[in-house]
Batch of 2 targets.
Target 1
Amino acid sequence: MPTLAVIGSQWGDEGKGKITDYLAEDADLVVRFQGGANAGHTIKVGNEVIALHLLPSGIIREGVLSVIGNGLVVDLEQLKNELAMLRKTGRSGEMLRISDRANVVLPYHRLLDGAEERARGNKGVGTTGRGIGPCYADKVARAGIRMGDLLDEVYLWERLDTIFPQKERLAQSLGIKLDLEKASLLRTLLEYGNLYRPYITDTSVLVNRAIQEGKKVMFEGAQGTMLDIDHGTYPYVTSSNCTAAGICNGAGVPPSAVEEVIGVTKAYTTRVGAGPFVTELHDAMGLHLQNVGGEFGTTTGRPRRCGWLDMVVVRHAIRLSGMTSLAVTKLDVLSDLPTLKVCVAYEIDGQIVEDFPASVFRLARAKPIYEELEGWTAASSKPADIIRKGYAALPKNMRKYLDFITTSSGIPIGIVSFGKGREETIDLRRRTWSR
Ligand code: GDP
Ligand code: IMO
Ligand code: MG
């Protein structure tokens, strides 16, 4: 049963898009299972750079069925724009399938996202403003519209009748106007229903059948473990389960369906939005990582906060998702630094802490305990040499850095990425899944 999951082990933007695209060469299906257009997954193919928000990264590869699972929240307009962008690149998007059970981000969800952020004042989460939180809140409150509903005018009208009064009360309490107009929203939703009709289906049936037939199925995570609604730095998190556990609910597959879990880990740490970040660097080194790493959000363009690699975070992620190996990305960004630091534990109120604490209050007092490692020069890690010779061509100190991560994490490194392109990748996995 060849299935594989790609999960972010930090605060998102670890390079999941690149790694998913790289692995999708061998895949039959790529399935997204949570999140929405808050994600920004960048893929570089030759000179082409493609940023995907809702579409699974498999859409770039010919012949790969790309599934938007029931666990997503779908922004109808964003999806239309993304499909148009894809067509401009000469790809059809025909291999897309959308779950009939995925919830729909409605125009008022974006407005509520903004209003709720403003109401939080200086305690804002720093959301992407894509309506994600309000849409998931409606899902749980049983006040959502699902993709399948867009195909049924009578039922949709009935749903809007139930939902609108609730929204009106909420808007009033936040002091905003939502311009709720039932007939025009209904028209818009039905139009989108027609547009997406060919893609909407029971994707749980589709994915489970594919697994049973022995097809190669990949699950592509969005965001990262530390943004998980249960296990992240709550309340500075997103509103879905970003760990591997989210796959079961969000794709409609049993736990036994997830065989291999690759944790994508940036060689340092970044975070966009508010919330605790123990290894954050507020100095020139932080700016260096931001500039060299091009650390600006794919979705919002915001600068990403940068800091050293935090193994307390990575170990938390490995445990929660049962990660079987790591894909370490952006190693090239750490070139030419004399020394590198890796956080191995925190000190909080005089105590050594190795397991990630639940309370952001405690985290605010956490001091990183670092191990120092020697750096390497860019000249000693020429991509052409590495591509030809593989792991052995990596500079000695880069290998030491990777060895340190392996020892500290307790799981092997399967993939090493040292550039944006597909070819700037070394694959060290036992070839169980691919090729
Ligand atoms: P995702 O959200 O996890 O898919 O990551 P993003 O696409 O938001 O951000 C990762 C950024 O790093 C993208 O611009 C990628 O093209 C880029 N990237 C991925 N892997 C590497 C790498 O190994 N080296 C460098 N320099 N850039 C990389
Ligand atoms: P990918 O898939 C990084 C962050 C936001 C904010 C918090 C909540 O590209 O890794 P939301 O809009 O989800 O309610 O915002 O989560 N966030 C991300 N940060 N990468 C992402 O996705 C993110 N998606 C959401 O910045 O702090
Ligand atoms: Mg991203």
Target 2
Amino acid sequence: MTFNPEEQPVPAIPPAWPAFGGDDAIRIRDVRVIMTAPDNIRTVIVKIETTEPGLYGLGCATFTQRPLVVRTAIEEYLRPFLIGRSVHDIEDIWQASYVSSYWRSGPVLNNAMSGVDMALWDIKGKIANLPVYQLLGGKVRQAADVYVHASGADFDEVEENVRALMDRGFRNIRCQVAVPGSATYGARPHADKTDGQKYAIHLELTDARWNPAAYCRIVPRLFDHIRSRIGDEVELLHDVHERVHPMAAIRLAQDLEPYRLFFYEDPFAPEDNGYFNLLRQHSTIPVAMGELYVNQAEYVNLIKDRLIDFIRVHISDVGGLSPARKLAAYCEFFNVRTAWHGPGDASPVAHAANLALDLSSSNFGIQEATIWGDRSREVFPGTPEIREGALWSNDLPGLGIDLHEELAARYPFPEHPINGAWPDIRLRDGEIVRP
Ligand code: GCO
Ligand code: MG
């Protein structure tokens, strides 16, 4: 008997099930972008308005070096794509948005998606009348221990700032010192003694050149100074900010071992991920990495191979709360702890989302905090409070944070010669170095 395909029975194709959501679902009515800089830091906030009167959510989409591109991604692409969808479908909306550009996984599109994603979690919490940390499984801690920044023009000034922060109840302090005659990350030659936080980010243009050898010599001396003057009752941290060659970063890790750092941050650029194995073989310093990661391919193996101790991801840069909660859970299997990036260019809305994860993750390590100015706290009522060196939730439904739109409009982005971009950092011979 010969096989004749035309005589074969055609299998019935099951009909598609009706789209979920249901007719009575609350739907996305509008997706708006609000840009504001109350503390002179460019932040981008997404507000999702719903078909339910008075029900809206807020999310952070801040990519402070390229905010206008994020706004375009939201207003021109995500907004028409999302209007009319059910607000209940957070995961479905994330997955659909992720592939809707076909090319994906960069900081612009991830930040745009983060604004939407956090806003939908905020809305879900408000519908449930529960704080977002409850939706994530509930509290495993009362509050999240934070670290803050102390910097200075010299060792004495850093010490003075560390003491001032300790007097305010902080027990985890990142120390950065200026390198005389050289550009430096995290400290300026003439630091304003009243506010170490000012140097959380600094985007000024500078003619000063970067001297990696001088930096590597001065940092161990800084920690020797701080430990010998202040003792062991404080946890110290340091951010290399990917600025030295990998072998120099490994050598610096060894030089810092006697000072028992809580963590040693961003020793390598993401492009040099391959060096972590070598660092592990030569030092027991706890390693924190990841604020520049935007793609899961960059961090999945580092965690699985236990090559880092703290994941430092900036949650809006990976696409929001949904991918971050999966990452936290993945890290838990390998005893890698969370240390979500919390600089001033993560808006107070992002800090509220960080806090929801901090409170509900058993593998929480530490939270970087920004000490907000009065203007930011007025623009964002509900900004998480810092007390006793920790961040506390206000336990309100959703993310517990609001945005005063009229006030926000009073703080447009400040003028800047290169529109807020990261400045050139160069070696003496003029070569560009990574941030
Ligand atoms: C940190 C960071 C920040 C970044 C800034 C970039 O660990 O706090 O390194 O200060 O430099 O967020 O915009
Ligand atoms: Mg950093």
